[in-house]
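Discrete fold record:
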Amino acid sequence: MAYEQPEDIIARLTMTFPPGYDLSLDRIKTLLEKLGNPECDIPPVIHVAGTNGKGSTVALMRSILEAAGYAVHVHTSPHLCRYHERFRIATAKGHSAYVNDDRLSQALLRVERVNNGQDITVFELLTAVTFVLFSSNPADYTLLEVGLGGRLDATNVIPPPLMSVITPIGLDHQGFLGDTIEQIAAEKAGIIKQGVPVCVGDQYDNRVRDMIDFAAARANAPVFYQGQDFQSFQENGRLVYQDEEGLMDLRLPRLQGQHQIINAGLAIAALRKIGLDLPHKIIDKGLQNVVWPGRMQQLKEGHLVKQAPDGSELWLDGGHNPHAGRAIASLMADLHEQSDRPLFLISALLNTKDPSGYFEPFSDLARHCFTVPLTNTENGIAPEDLFKSALAAGLSSEPVDSLEDALLMIKESWLSDIPPRILICGSLYLVGEALLLNGTPPK
């Protein structure tokens, strides 16, 4: 039986229900009740909130679980190229894949029909689709990433999960979550459930920990803090993980950067704290097999690679706030020490972000920054405005009309024998555009 394409259905829903966020649980609860409460029938859940590292931590947990032979469903957002990326379905023990067109269309049409035109956000509809898909397919575990915040996020309608995970929290989405770090932390800590253990990633502000402690105490939920109850660090080119059960000496994760060592420690701790006895070799295998597109991803071949100067390194990263900027700049500095290449940025940001805070860590690293428009959203900062923020942060910068124009300008002006290092960064929308243009979307 032929169905409408998922993108066509979602486009229709987006026209009916304007995109954006209106944080509430009432609408999603009403819809799920009409659907028979599928959120109560999904496999046991690990629920993940935070500002930075949510997706990477989920990807690391999935890779470790699948290396151990478990069947795992995964919900993440946003997607890079296609909506299908938000819904990874277990296909067999140790294997999963993005949902196919027919299954996604069936679920979308069912949710649309049952909602029957009632006011709701598109994210809430997609969350209902997640629960319909996951409840219809067997698996051992569900990894469920929060969309925005936590307390009033549409994913927070689930029954008590196996584990709540909170990754590092910083200032982001202030228009929805509050202007202070305390307000944002309180919203993220809203996923904490009565008696459910919480694993907390490395936090950089004691006020965050205070808010998590308060929420956990109210819920009588045991809390495990990175740096106190477990830790992960790099030593002699290896990842060392340690908790009360002992020490593990592991290879560095496939995902690059010091921040991924932190994320890997959090992923390992969360799985151990739900009682899984995972051999060192299984964890090590999971760390090596992990894939998380658009996060410090190097493009080795494709259309965009051919447009850059011969021998260039072309990197993508969708981190988009000051904390992410510092992590990415740190990795660029590490790469510079290993191989001295001039660094160029090609950047775009949403108008809800802090561009100066994002650019500042690159001020002593990047030779030049090209600012480009976002073609797949109306909420991007105009390149003519964004380049001023880059200048204010101490970067040489100029606006250009497109990502491909920026690459062409670098190629036509490049005279050095040393090929450059080019980082396409600042927005997952830009990264998604780059992957499509390059001909290498996530699979």
Q: What stands out?
A: The two ends are 24 Å apart (CA to CA). The CA atoms of residues 303 and 437 lie 7 Å apart. The first strand starts at residue 45 and ends at 49. Residues 322-338 form the longest helix (17 residues).
